[in-house]
Design brief:
It is a single chain. By secondary structure, the protein is an all-alpha fold. Helix content is 68%, strand content 0%. It contains eleven helices and no strands. It has helices at 2-26, 34-54, 57-65, 69-81, 88-97, 101-116, 121-133, 145-155, 165-175, 187-203, 212-223. Helix 3 (57-65) packs antiparallel against helix 6, helix 4 crosses helix 6 (101-116) and helix 10 crosses helix 11 (212-223). The chain is globular and about 55 Å long.
Length: 231
């Protein structure tokens, strides 16, 4: 019985070893490799540090008290703009959505609740889905997985994960992980993303991943065309 279970698990183990081999092929010292830091880590870490400098909890509360909603929204957008996490159409859609005072207010208040709220992540996530879906729309839809998840990821990568759908689906397929994806943002898919990340964390523990920035970067390397598969 034990050998039968091992044989069934063998394809999964083989797939995961191949994925880790690919990551190490590009970054020989794993998450500590200088090339990894330069290519994948540092700009995300810089965005996080900048967010916590200008929109930390105390500053954010003070800005909300002063009703500086447009300033909050602009701060967030400018920080994200220094990364390549969103597609250009998503960046434009968000800028358009916060141009009106009402859009900026909705975004600023909703983002604070999502990042700094005190109830469960599931409840905060589901509320933020409603916030983003309610923002003004000109041409391109605002409610996309990357736009929904990028600011939590930048603000607090110890709690929030970033989702690029196509890349993540490709990575999960290569990893032989059952990623439950639906195109419309929903908690089940987001929870499945965390499960995927936690599996990677366990499998790469020898390389000491620090937070979800490292785990998201691993997924990116697996699924992105920027990193061809290795034999």
């Amino acid at each position: 019985m034990k050998s039968e279970l091992l044989s069934k698990d063998e394809p999964f183990q083989k797939a995961r070893k191949c994925c880790i081999k690919k990551f190490i092929y590009y970054f020989k010292k794993g998450y500590q490799d200088q090339k990894y830091i330069d290519w994948e880590l540092q700009y995300k870490r810089n965005a996080h540090l900048q967010f916590q400098e200008v929109l930390n909890r105390r500053t954010y509360i003070n800005l909300l008290k002063e009703k500086e909603y447009e300033q909050i929204a602009l701060f967030a957008v400018r920080i994200e703009a220094k990364t390549n996490l969103l597609f250009s159409f998503e960046k434009i859609a968000l800028r358009d959505a916060i141009k009106s005072p009402g859009g900026a207010k909705t975004f600023a208040i909703g983002l604070y609740d999502y990042i700094y709220g005190e109830d469960s992540l599931q409840h905060r996530f589901e509320r933020f889905v409603q916030v983003i879906s309610s923002l003004p729309r000109k041409q391109t839809r605002v409610l996309t997985w990357p736009l929904l998840t990028v600011f939590g990821f930048i603000a607090n990568p110890d709690e929030h994960m970033f989702l690029k759908p196509r890349v993540t689906q490709k990575a999960a397929e290569k990893y032989k992980f059952a990623f439950h994806y639906k195109s419309r943002p929903n908690w089940e898919t987001y929870q499945s993303l965390f499960d995927f990340a936690k599996q990677i964390e366990r499998d790469t523990k020898n390389y000491s991943p620090k937070d979800y920035i490292d785990l998201q970067s691993f997924i990116w390397v697996m699924g992105s065309e920027e990193y061809p598969d290795v034999k």
